[in-house]
Amino acid sequence: MDKQYTEVLVGCYGKEDSACIHWLKIHAESGKIKRLGGQDGIANPSFLVKHPVKNRVYAVSEVENGEVVCYELDDENHCLKEEDRLPTHGGPCYAEVSGCGKYLFVSNYSRAGVVVYALNENGGLQEEVEYIAFTSANNQASHIHTVRQIPETSFVIMTDIGKSKLCIYQWDEKQMRLLPSQSITIPEKVGPRHIAFHPDMPMLYVVNEYQSSVFVYKYAESSASIQCIQEIETVHDLKNYGAEIQYFDGKLITSNRGADSLTLFRVREDGRLEKENSIPVSGEWPRHFCSNQLINNQLFVCNQNSNNITVLRQKNDTYSMTNDTFTIQKPVCIIGI
Fold this sequence. Notes:
A four-stranded antiparallel β-sheet has the order 3-2-1-28, with no helix packed on it.
């Protein structure tokens, strides 16, 4: 790929007969965006993830009877070639490839649960190997929003936004089972949503949807034991709903729906956070974002309710808006490819 450009995939809310995954090209200097292609045949592809090694992308279809779809990336023609699709037992909203690259974890928000799929040697969906349901006839409160493998461990952490708790399981590859390890309850109506990890220390960060805050946890590398060491505010707005959280080059960034901004935190040497500032995104309901750090340190933000993608450029250790915006219907996820 030309280093003067970044290519991304954007997942959008929309119907199956319309193109809801878009292949875009963004100029690293000007920030101008051009659409190269699109993919229909999937409804509400609200979360996308790329295999770290193989030329495959996975999209969840966030509908009542959801699916996960595997695509091969056709770089020459800027299109996605569907390979496989499998049911998820509910309404999925998140996916992550395991550290070893052999499995795909998917979380269901509605009919809460987590599904594990084995991947073949090319990264394709092979089969479902594990499924854990978090709901029963008399227990419908759980909503699993995120499932992530704790780096360099066999443990998997999930956010239950409905019950305001973190669930930790150990992935037993030999048995292909998720074994319960511990459950961490946090204050009611906080709504833990997404998780980011520190790249060098055993620290994880949880952005909360209902409380405009981030919880900082320190975990033991050899076990699933974790301890909350800090709680820090994102924005003052009462009607604000945190969405995404990511670590970029010594900073932690959250997206704020309602405040319509990104909040930047400096990550201190001990892993704790120090709030720097919040930056307007020139859009409404910023849900997800990604960076092209290797080129020009830009941020690309999906603004769901204003139907646009906006571009921020790093300058003097912070980010500022550019004049570039791209109209696209209900964008909710963006990843580099």
